[in-house]
Amino acid sequence: MPEPVALVDADLQLRPWRSEDLPALLANANHAAVVRGLSSRFPHPYTAEDGRAFLAGEVVPLDRWALAICRDGQACGGIAITCGSGERCGTASLGYWLGPAHWNQGLMGRVLALYVPWVMGDAGLHRLLAEVMVHNPASARVLLRHGFVEEGTARWAIRKEGVLYDLRRFAWLAGPSAAASA
């Protein structure tokens, strides 16, 4: 069994979710602005029942790569990958979120700087995909600043609350050939 993960940079820690994170999870997740850029499995309002189900691993697998983003010891967001299989072995999709009180402070850039190199090696990935709804330019900017390359736009890729949205697609490629193929 691998050792538990703890990635640390000053006041920032990425670590496995814990049941005692429930109050902080509720305080940071229960915002319409957070949900606006996430998949529909992230509900709003975000209730204690939703939080308990998430922390029990009933919503998404809380595997080795699903980590709480903590600032000064308190969970304030999350980051995870979903690994591909079959012919997509060695690839993964990245997802992340932060509570609004932590936006526009450079925190997500620090998170990506810790998480991406680690997860690429730990999960044996050669490609990491991140998709961003077109109305979330801040997320697109942080990906671009931290080594992701924009690959294009998937038009009408998702439907939320009856509205079709485009998704901007970004990728991080491992190894020295990454820059040559970008």
From TrEMBL:
Highest rank taxon of the organism: Bacteria
Domain N-acetyltransferase: 12-170
GO molecular function, one term: acyltransferase activity, transferring groups other than amino-acyl groups
InterPro entries recorded: Acyl_CoA_acyltransferase, GNAT_dom
SUPFAM superfamilies in the record: Acyl-CoA N-acyltransferases (Nat)
PROSITE patterns: GNAT
Protein name: N-acetyltransferase domain-containing protein
Source organism of the structure: Stenotrophomonas ginsengisoli
